[in-house]
């Protein structure tokens, strides 16, 4: 287990045991913030790196403010819950190398833009992002500024000043669809802006990282294949990925982890031009949400829907790798499926799908069966839909 053990009165030891990526590459990680307004881009970048002895590992919860944000999102008092979270998980680290040297490659790496779910932020999907990076992808995990992150921030033009953007619930009396639909639109635009950032870097533009990391973005210049770009996300991020396909022709396909389909307007379904892989958990989806996925799969034979057995909604986040009762009580993070097996199934299905639709010359097609819902831990479509058809 990683360092970051502590004792709490609410259930003993907490630790975060994120697995190392299983692919052939070591994984590096850095934070990138471009622009000094809300319209900028903020993301955590996972990339194949050169191994470096004694490399620092980044904190999983980057700052105390995120503990406050999680407490607020979980409807717990920030006065006791935030310090408790900070003590319990504030020192947990991600097993990747912080600001490690980028690994040059004779052929360029494909790119994945990753969109987080409601009430989370850029670092809470480190397990799946670093797994994909270990197989030779550059993965940009966004932090959205539409008030759907538990909290986020940007650095203003005034030296050293930050402006924080809190999580916002649906205002009382406001239509939830209207509120969420505006958010998903902003989120998809942010995915498009993130892609534009990589296009700028590739065209040789000088891009300033306002966080002044020890990582030179210009090393990415001839290293990313902008003809091989996918968009991916979890929950609210899953539906964000679907909408991003409509907005940006450069995205060739989307991987939607337990997508929350509610915020997408019906008129958009005929507009989704590219294939989507829906990887659902067993306990989250509603018949309405599944019906929306099926509208897409009926229009595109390459769109696939599979369900991972024994999984719950949080199984596709890092929270499922926390051991100890405290977090499970606050977030309900564990299904019956072993978290490492769940990550394997999710990432292998995604890799097989990405190989197919980004024309990769890898051996990810060895996992093609998963896309048809064939395997011990998966079924095609959604379990409760089969009996209702």
TrEMBL record:
Keywords: Hydrolase, Lipid degradation, Lipid metabolism. One of its GO terms (biological process) is lipid catabolic process. GO terms for molecular function: 1-alkyl-2-acetylglycerophosphocholine esterase activity. The active site is at 235 (nucleophile), 258 (charge relay system), 313 (charge relay system). Pfam families: PAF-AH_p_II. It comes from the Eukaryota. It is an enzyme of class 3 (hydrolase). Its EC number is 3.1.1.47. PANTHER family: PLATELET-ACTIVATING FACTOR ACETYLHYDROLASE, PLATELET-ACTIVATING FACTOR ACETYLHYDROLASE 2, CYTOPLASMIC. This is 1-alkyl-2-acetylglycerophosphocholine esterase.
């Amino acid at each position: 287990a990683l360092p970051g053990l502590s004792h709490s009165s609410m259930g003993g030891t907490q630790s975060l045991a994120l697995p190392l990526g299983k692919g052939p590459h070591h994984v590096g990680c850095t934070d990138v913030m471009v622009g000094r307004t809300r319209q900028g881009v903020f993301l955590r970048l996972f990339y194949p790196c050169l191994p470096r002895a004694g490399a620092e590992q980044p904190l999983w919860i980057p700052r105390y403010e995120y503990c406050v944000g999680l407490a607020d999102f979980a409807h717990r008092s920030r006065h006791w819950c935030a310090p408790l979270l900070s003590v319990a998980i504030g020192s947990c680290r991600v097993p990747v190398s912080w600001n490690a040297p980028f690994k040059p490659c004779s052929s360029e790496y494909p790119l994945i833009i990753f969109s987080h779910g409601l009430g989370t932020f850029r670092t809470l999907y480190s397990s799946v992002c670093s797994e994909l990076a270990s197989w030779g992808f550059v993965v940009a995990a966004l932090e959205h500024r539409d008030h759907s992150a538990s909290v986020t921030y940007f650095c203003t033009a005034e030296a050293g000043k930050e402006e924080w953007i809190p999580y916002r619930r649906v205002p009382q009396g406001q239509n939830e669809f209207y509120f969420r639909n505006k958010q998903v639109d902003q989120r998809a635009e942010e995915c498009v802006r993130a892609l534009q950032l990589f296009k700028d870097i590739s065209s040789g533009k000088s891009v300033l990282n306002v966080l002044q990391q020890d990582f030179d973005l210009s090393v990415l210049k001839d290293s990313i294949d902008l003809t091989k770009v996918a968009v991916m996300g979890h929950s609210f991020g899953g539906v964000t990925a679907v909408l991003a396909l409509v907005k940006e022709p450069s995205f060739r396909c989307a991987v939607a982890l337990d997508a929350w389909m509610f915020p997408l307007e019906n008129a958009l379904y005929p507009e989704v031009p590219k294939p989507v892989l829906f990887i659902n958990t067993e306990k989250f989806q509603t018949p309405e949400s599944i019906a929306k996925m099926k509208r897409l799969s009926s229009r595109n034979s390459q769109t696939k829907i599979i369900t991972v057995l024994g999984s719950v909604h949080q199984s596709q986040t890092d929270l499922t790798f926390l051991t100890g009762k405290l977090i499970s009580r606050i977030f309900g993070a564990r299904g019956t499926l072993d978290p490492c097996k769940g990550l394997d199934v999710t990432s292998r299905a995604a890799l097989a799908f990405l190989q197919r639709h980004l024309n990769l010359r890898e051996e990810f097609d060895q996992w093609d069966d998963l896309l048809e819902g064939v395997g011990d831990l998966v079924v095609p479509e959604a379990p409760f839909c089969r009996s209702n058809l």
